[in-house]
What does this fold into?
Amino acid sequence: MRGAAHGRDAPGRDGGFAASGDERGFIVIVVLWMLAALASLALIYLTYVTNTAVTVAVNTDRLQADALMNAGLELAAYRLTAQSEATRPTSGTFNARVGAGRVAVTFRSEAARIDLNMAPKSVLAGLMIGLGVSTADAPDYADRILAWRSSTEPGVDNPEDSFYRTLGAPYLPRHAPFPHSDELWLVRGIPPAVIGRMLPFVTVFSNMRTVNVLDAAPQVVAALPGMTPETLQQLLRNRADPNVAPQSLVGLAGSASATIEGAKAYRVTVAAEAPSHRQSSAEIVILLLESGDEPYRVLSWHNAFDGSAGKPL
It folds into this structure.
């Protein structure tokens, strides 16, 4: 009898049976697996909560940045439309605190740039020469731009169309005004490096053949016909002198392409800093409207959001 009971669980003190060592080991393993599973679930949940918090924070920053940039644009538009066209500044800058954020705003009339749809060949070629293009190649490159924007009669074989077909381009010149300065990349026959250097100095929004020498970059002023290095330096010195009459700059430039008048289109740069110190910026081109329900119309808007914390504005 003793041998028969040896292979079974022995009765416990309470009349039951005590678990064997193997069964107790199995129970421990099951418990450990359950604890591991719970730990994994907790880790997954923690990761989810963390990622959700990061996503919410980033989206909040973006919403705040959009609100700040809209506020900066509205403030700039108000400053411009609050004055008559005769007294309206062609450029300016200001800082403002908006709620817990801050904005730094710069505005400048598009007349400070060369209009791709209006500028004569001499100005386009002059800009390229000032940017390092040889005097032999610059006129040819300018012809490519003029040919792109020039209309053509239906049914007439245009030489520029043949030029694009010869190059194997999958498109032909627009034969209409540039809708955006970035379309300059599509003009064949101009090296991409030259186009890249031109873009910061050109526009399609001024609708003016002339350039505002009071606000234009030195590279743009240098593009005016007949401009010499000596005259350019004198003009730059004079326009920095508050005692010099702005109108005298036009006479000094000595070109029919020079003016001190502004365009109705303005390029507004807004740098915003959210309460978290994350920074973003936008470059917006607006057209001021003299009548109607809206004071301005947005022509172009380019956002740059880096999401990184930087120095306060």
